[in-house]
Amino acid sequence: MLALYGLKDMYYTYQEGEGGIADALKLCENFADNEPIVVVLGDNLVQDDITPYIQRFREQGSGARILLKEVADAQRFGVPELDGDRIVRIEEKPKEPKSSFAVTGIYMYDHRVFDFIRELKPSARGELEITDVNNAYIRENALFYDVLDGWWTDAGTFESLYHATQLVATSR
Predict the structure, then answer these.
(1) What does the pLDDT average to over 154-160?
(2) Which of residues 18 and 152 earns the better pLDDT score?
(3) Pairing of strands 86-92, 78-83
(4) DSSP notation for 32-79
(5) So what's the pLDDT on residue 55?
(6) Is the per-residue pLDDT at 172 higher than 80?
(7) How many CA atoms lie within 13 A of 54 on its CB side?
(8) Residue 78 CA neighbour count, 13 Å, CB half
(9) How far is CA 156 from the centre of its chain?
């Protein structure tokens, strides 16, 4: 089955408790073996193949690349503040979003991601935030983005799980 998705091997680890996405990601450092990585959160569903975005990440050579999607309820997500074609900052779950884009749970990082994670301090929620990792790449002018063409949703709430089910059921 893995070969069907172009995967040679698949590994996993278990996160104890709720320490945040960056906390979970740091558990994967040994699996990454100093190579670039692609992170797809388990509650994310996308309509289109993400291979073209991963290819753009490979071509950029270093840094990070994230995928954005325009949404009606941006305050539920990490939200980028845009200046032209550049992200200047990402704010986690803002009451007054600076854009209508959500940072999807699809991230691509070079090997430095684990260095950035080691420097993080827990947020007010007591978690290591992936938004803080992305902002570290922004400070280094090394974060790039693409906007997804097809639909995207997360299934993190009952409402979004229902919506995801509808999207998948009516696709193709």
Answers:
(1) 82
(2) 152
(3) antiparallel
(4) HTTS-EEEE-TTEEESS--HHHHHHHHHH-SSEEEEEEE-S-GGGSEE
(5) 95
(6) no
(7) 10
(8) 20
(9) 14
Detail the DSSP E strand segments found in 93-136. 101-109
pLDDT per residue over 68-104, tens digit each? 999 999 999 999 999 999 999 999 999 999 999 999 9
Whole-number Å distance between alpha carbons of 38 and 113? 11
Q: Which amino acid is at 71?
A: V
- Contact indicator for 88, 81 with CB cutoff of 8 Å: yes
pTM of the predicted model, to two decimals? 0.88
Residue ranges with strand state E in the chain: 37-40, 44-46, 64-70, 78-83, 86-92, 101-109, 143-147, 152-154
Q: Which two tokens stand for residue 94?
A: 């803002």
CB 27 within 8 A of CB 13: yes
The CA distance from 142 to 147, in Å, is: 17
